[in-house]
Every structure is written in structure tokens, then in C-alpha cells.
Design brief:
heterodimer; A: mainly alpha; ABC transporter involved in vitamin B12 uptake, BtuC; two-stranded antiparallel sheet; 3% strand; B: ABC transporter involved in vitamin B12 uptake, BtuC
Chain lengths: 343, 353
């Protein structure tokens, strides 16, 4: 009989690298900001670019968050997500145009009320549309990625064409509400008011989402469902209902993002959802499918990167995002914060 | 002999065989059967799109991989011919160098994208190709010094393929000039490429691809490296698409972002594959023919229909010729649900029943 192998347990700490690992993505945003500071010669333009990058990132985050949750929860990949962005923008802008006198008035309260009404209208419309989209288009193809991609792409085409039927093929130009126009000067840098508003709204949405996901029971179910859906169902929760709720909420958020995006560019077109979709996908991939935090960090990275590079070297702005995606996928093939275990 | 040419994959349905035969004869004799600039142009477009759609089917129908960068590869082939013809002067050598270079670049790019995205999850591929393709389209329209930007490039093809070249008098009332040769250049090029693709999908390689499509986990367990096969399929289909692009460039003598790289074109390809039938090479023939003919002639019909209902609200808008993509989108969704094997699958099923 041989002796048992020697066993001498030691209390060892994880190496510094291992402990820092999970926090690395969080450091990327400040790192990029510092990098931008070093690369851009003038401080005031750096500040302007940083704010507009953050604003853009927040808007992309609002649009993308629904998509990543829907995927995490039900393994459904929705290529039609961009349609909600377009519809939200068109509904919101139509409401704003109808309330012309409130928009043109130089009163902050009246302006904000008009925007709020437009946002609520847009979110209601896209939420309702999300519900219909889920029922008609997504439900019959659960668990079949190939068909999901094809069918939701078809849905995108149909919705885009319907927008053209209802609103006409022309792009609609408009101006932002009176008090949201112009810029304030801070430390020699011109900061557009609307971008600051966008940053605040984005932060609020992110905080609210984190609160719901981390502190409420429904959030617990959603997070558990992302990790292991079968187990949650076995415990007696009807994950399908939760999923429809998340789908509707995600669509409504895409609508909100659409209104904000439209107000940001001051023009809406039927193809804008399609264009937003590309940025949304990049963000969702680098963030890690199913992760709200990853999506947030990814969106900020993409927004900042796009603005810095567009200032330094305009021609490579779109390519820079692809480069960012390639770099991050080489570092972490599943995205920065992988949540969904390969199913 | 025919069986050998078709790699043993016969239509397996009398109706389908008849339809395919009619299409083949029509395309082969198009300049004589339907003389006219527009109809011959339509026939050449059908030839090019059959190859393009068939190469996409290799990826989507046989490999089960969704790509949104197929027009990018198509465009790379077309721009290859255009750039070579511009810088090397007109001649067949320029066409071949351009086509080969385009095919090489397309395959290399496909290898890169494939290695990046397919090793993790197949669905990443769809999203990443969408992003890359849009970036390339923007890049091409911005690098106007090289690519002509939004205006594209107009260039000269070999003299023998131009309308000024005459090699005889009329035959059955058709002028024997270079345009006719150009058509047959495209037609035979497309035919050879299509038969090659048919050969590929019926080889052991194609069989493994189908196995992976059905159950990748099991294919891996049996001992096939799923990633290698998927990447190889991506590269093959990218190369074939680039060659189709080269044919298209030779026919049009022009390349531009709208005709070769646009997202609309990608959606057209998707519609053609799904309507024709995924996973059946013959679906590409049916889908491309139906679609191109519909694109050219259905719009007139819809315009007429919209003229009939001018009094009803909204309806004329829905029926106007510009909205045909709406109805195709609806048709697309319905066919994914109810006829996932498309027209060809239906015809084959009908025979068995």
C-alpha cells in the first residue's frame, strides 16, 4: 500500500492579473479618454469631443441594451431591432412637429414637456410594435438562429417600406426645441446643450436598468434566466412572459434611442435604423452578448473612438470601430464581459 | 454525360427539369430569341446573379452560415477587373489579372473574417460581416482617387467584346458584333462557375458541410474540424462571388458602389436564395430568374395596378412601383416560415407525394 501523496495546502492569493481581470473593461473607457487627451493637441476641442463621444455612446447604449438582453434571455437574435429605432424616431418627430408652438416657445418647461410627450408616444408605439413583432415574427422561429436572422431581416425590410408608405420617401428635417439649441462654454470648450442632456438621460437609463436588474425580484429572474433558463422554469417561473416583457421594454428603449438620435442629427430617414444597427451590433459584440454592463462600456468606447478618430483622421472613422472590435475580440473572443455561456 | 456534368445531382422532378431546361435554352439563345438591348441585358444579369446566388447558397443553404458581406466580395471582384482594365489598358490579360486578383483578395478577406468570428459562434459571423461590409462600402465611396467614389469607374473591356468589333454579317437578323461575344463570355463563364459550384456541394466536402449544418456538435464529435470546414466554405463562396462580380464588370463596363456593394443588393440576394430554395443549387437558378424578371417587369404591372385604385386612400401608395420591396419582404417572411426549401423544395416534394 502506497502512502497518500503529500498534500500541503497553502493560502495563496490570486495573482494581481487575475484579480484585475474582471475590472479591466471598466478601465478601458478612462484609458481611451486619456489617450484622446494625449493625441488631441487642444484641450478645449478634446473636451468638446469627449462630451459628444459620451453623448453618442449613451444613445447607442439605449438602443443596444434591449437587443443584448433579448439575446441573453431567450437566445433570440433580432436583426430587426433597427426598425424600432426608425419607427421611434418617426413617431417622436411627428409628435414634435404637431406641437410646433410648444417646441418653438423659448420656455424650457414647455420644450421639455413637448419632448417628454414625444418620447412617451414613441416608446408606446415601439413597445406595442415590439409586442406584435414578437408575436408574429419571432415566436414561430424560437431556437433556430438561421431562420431568426432571415425572418427578422425580412421584418426590417417590411417595416422600413411601411415607413416610406406612411411618411413618404423624403428625409424629414427639423430643428431642435428652442432651449435645447446652442451650446454653453465651459473651460473654453463649447459643449452643446443637447449632448449634455443626452449624457444625463443615458446615465439615468443605465442607473435605472441596473437598479431593476440588481435590486428587484423581476431583475433577479431576468438575470437568472440569462444564466440558466431551464432552471428558472423548473422553479416555476413563466420565463416566456418575462421574455415578452423584456422584448417590449427593449423595443421601447430602442424607440427612445431613436427619438434621441433623431433630435441629435435633426433629420430622420427610413434607413436610419439600418445605419444605427451597424453600431449597435459592434457594441453588442464587444460588450459580450447578454451583458448590460458590457454593452454600456462598449457603447462609450465606440462613441468616444468615433469622435476622436473623426477629428484626427476623418476618413478612417468607420474603420476605427471595426479595428476596435477586432482588437477586443482578439483579447476576449466572447466580448468584454461574457455572460451567456455557450448554449 | 449529363449526369456527369451535373455531378450526379439531377433536378429529381420532371416539372423542375422542364423549367430549368427552358431557362437554359432561353439564356443560351437570348440574343436570337429576344433581340433588343434591354432583354439581352436582363439575360446577362440573370446569368451573373445565378452564379452570385449559387455561391451564396453554398454558404447559407449548405453551410448554414448567414453572411451579409456577400456583395462586398462581389464588389471586390468587379472592382478588380475595373482597376486592372483602367491601369493595364484594355485587353483580356487585364480582365484575367483583375479577376484573379479580386478573387484572391476576396478569399483572403473571407479567411480573415471567418477565422475571427466563426471560431467563437456562428451568429457572430452575421453581425461582423454586416459591420465589415458597411465599412468597406463607405471606404470605397470615400477613396475616390482609387475607386472613383460614388461615381464609380467606367472602363474599356477588350476590343473583341465591344459593339464596334464586327466578325461577320447578320445571323437570323442579329448583328454579329462584340456585344454578342460579350454576352456569350458572360453566359459560358456563368455556366462553368455554376457547374463547378454544383460539383463542390456534391463532393464529400459538401456532404460534411451539410452534416455541420444539421448538427455541428455531432459533426465535431465524429471528427471533422467544424471551424475549418466553415471557413473553407466561406472562402470558396467569396471567391465564386468575386468571379461573378468580374463577369458583371465585363458586361456593364462600369462599376460603382450602388451596382456592386449596396445593402439593397445584399437583400436582393437573400430574397433570391430563399424564394428559389435554400440548400438546392437549382434554387439559385429559379430564384435569380424570377427575381430579375420580376424586378424588370413586375414594377410596371404594379404601377398599372396602383393607377386603377387612385381613389382609395393609402392603397395606391402600397401598390406603387417603388414599393415592390415591401411585398417581396412579406413574401420572404412567409417563405421562410412555410416553404423553407423554396420553389425547388416544393417541386421536389410534389413528385414524392
Amino acid at each position: 500500500m502506497s502512502a497518500a501523496p503529500e498534500h500541503a495546502p497553502r493560502m495563496a492569493q490570486l495573482s494581481l492579473g487575475d484579480r484585475l481581470g474582471p475590472w479591466m473593461p471598466l478601465l478601458l473607457v478612462p484609458a481611451l479618454v486619456v489617450l484622446g487627451f494625449l493625441a488631441i493637441p487642444s484641450t478645449s476641442s478634446w473636451l468638446t469631443l469627449t462630451v459628444s463621444g459620451l453623448a453618442m455612446g449613451m444613445m447607442i447604449f439605449i438602443m443596444a441594451s434591449g437587443l443584448t438582453l433579448v439575446f441573453g434571455l431567450m437566445d433570440v437574435i433580432n436583426f430587426g431591432h433597427g426598425a424600432f429605432v426608425s419607427v421611434g424616431a418617426f413617431v417622436g418627430i411627428s409628435i414634435l412637429l404637431m406641437m410646433g408652438h410648444m417646441v418653438e416657445a423659448p420656455s424650457l418647461v414647455l420644450n421639455l414637456t413637448a419632448v417628454l410627450v414625444a418620447v412617451i408616444g414613441a416608446m408606446a408605439a415601439t413597445g406595442l410594435m415590439g409586442w406584435a413583432f414578437e408575436k408574429v415574427i419571432v415566436k414561430p422561429v424560437y431556437g433556430h438562429h438561421l431562420k431568426q436572422i432571415l425572418v427578422t431581416m425580412g421584418g426590417l425590410i417590411v417595416v422600413e417600406q411601411l415607413i416610406i408608405v406612411l411618411w413618404g420617401p423624403e428625409e424629414i428635417y427639423f430643428t431642435r426645441p428652442e432651449t435645447l439649441q446652442g451650446a454653453i462654454t465651459f473651460a473654453g470648450a463649447a459643449l452643446e446643450k443637447y449632448r449634455l442632456v443626452a449624457v444625463v438621460v443615458g446615465l439615468a437609463v443605465f442607473a435605472a436598468m441596473r437598479f431593476v436588474l440588481r435590486r428587484t425580484k423581476i431583475g433577479l429572474i431576468v438575470r437568472a434566466g440569462v444564466q440558466n433558463g431551464e432552471m428558472v422554469q423548473a422553479l416555476g417561473y413563466r420565463l416566456r412572459l418575462v421574455f415578452i416583457g423584456v422584448f417590449i421594454a427593449g423595443s421601447a428603449l430602442a424607440g427612445l434611442g431613436g427619438v434621441m438620435w433623431g433630435l441629435y442629427q435633426e433629420v430622420v430617414s427610413a434607413h436610419m435604423g439600418n445605419q444605427a444597427m451597424i453600431l449597435i451590433f459592434i457594441v453588442v459584440i464587444i460588450g459580450g452578448l447578454g451583458s448590460v454592463e458590457g454593452c454600456f462600456i462598449g457603447a462609450l468606447l465606440v462613441g468616444l473612438m468615433q469622435n476622436y478618430v473623426a477629428f484626427l483622421e476623418p476618413k478612417v472613422a468607420l474603420i476605427s470601430n471595426i479595428g476596435l472590435m477586432v482588437a477586443i475580440l482578439m483579447w476576449r473572443p466572447m466580448g468584454m464581459i461574457p455572460v451567456v455561456k455557450a448554449k | 454525360m449529363i449526369k456527369l456534368l451535373l455531378s450526379g445531382d439531377t433536378p429529381r422532378s420532371t416539372v423542375l427539369a422542364v423549367i430549368l431546361g427552358v431557362i437554359l435554352v432561353c439564356l443560351a439563345l437570348a440574343p436570337f430569341l429576344f433581340p433588343g438591348v434591354r432583354t439581352v441585358d436582363t439575360a446577362a444579369r440573370i446569368c451573373v446573379f445565378i452564379v452570385l446566388v449559387a455561391s451564396y447558397d453554398l454558404l447559407l443553404g449548405y453551410g448554414g452560415i448567414v453572411s451579409f458581406a456577400h456583395t462586398m466580395f462581389f464588389g471586390i471582384g468587379a472592382y478588380g477587373v475595373a482597376l486592372a482594365s483602367t491601369h493595364m489598358g484594355r485587353g483580356f490579360d487585364a480582365v484575367f489579372v483583375g479577376a484573379l486578383a479580386g478573387t484572391g483578395v476576396a478569399a483572403a478577406l473571407a479567411l480573415l473574417i471567418g477565422l475571427f468570428s466563426l471560431r467563437v459562434r456562428a451568429i457572430f459571423f452575421a453581425m461582423i460581416t454586416l459591420a465589415v461590409a458597411s465599412a468597406v462600402a463607405v471606404l470605397v465611396s470615400q477613396l475616390s482617387g482609387l475607386t472613383g467614389g460614388e461615381d464609380g469607374l467606367t472602363f474599356q473591356t477588350p476590343r473583341a467584346l465591344g459593339p464596334a468589333f464586327k466578325f461577320g454579317d447578320e445571323l437570323f437578323g442579329v448583328k454579329l458584333n462584340g456585344k454578342l461575344l460579350a454576352y456569350y463570355f458572360v453566359f459560358f463563364g456563368a455556366l462553368i462557375l455554376f457547374l463547378l459550384l454544383l460539383r463542390i456541394v456534391n463532393s464529400p466536402f459538401g456532404r460534411v458541410l451539410q452534416a455541420i449544418r444539421e448538427n455541428d456538435f455531432r459533426a465535431e464529435a465524429i471528427g471533422y474540424r467544424v471551424v475549418y470546414y466553415r471557413v473553407a466554405a466561406t472562402c470558396l463562396s467569396a471567391g465564386a462571388a468575386a468571379l461573378a462580380g468580374a463577369l458583371y464588370a465585363v458586361w456593364l463596363r462600369y462599376v460603382g458602389p450602388d451596382t456592386t456593394l449596396s445593402m439593397e443588393l445584399m437583400i436582393d440576394i437573400l430574397l433570391m436564395v430563399v424564394i428559389g430554395g435554400m440548400g438546392t443549387m437549382y434554387g439559385a437558378v429559379i430564384g435569380a430568374t424570377l427575381f430579375v424578371v420580376a424586378q424588370n417587369y413586375l414594377q410596371n404591372l404594379m404601377g398599372a395596378a396602383s393607377g386603377l385604385v387612385t381613389d382609395v386612400p393609402i392603397l395606391p401608395e402600397l401598390l406603387s412601383a417603388d414599393r415592390w420591396l415591401l411585398w417581396l419582404g412579406v413574401l420572404f417572411i412567409l417563405s421562410v416560415y412555410f416553404f423553407p426549401t423554396g420553389v425547388v423544395g416544393r417541386l421536389r416534394q410534389g413528385r414524392q407525394a
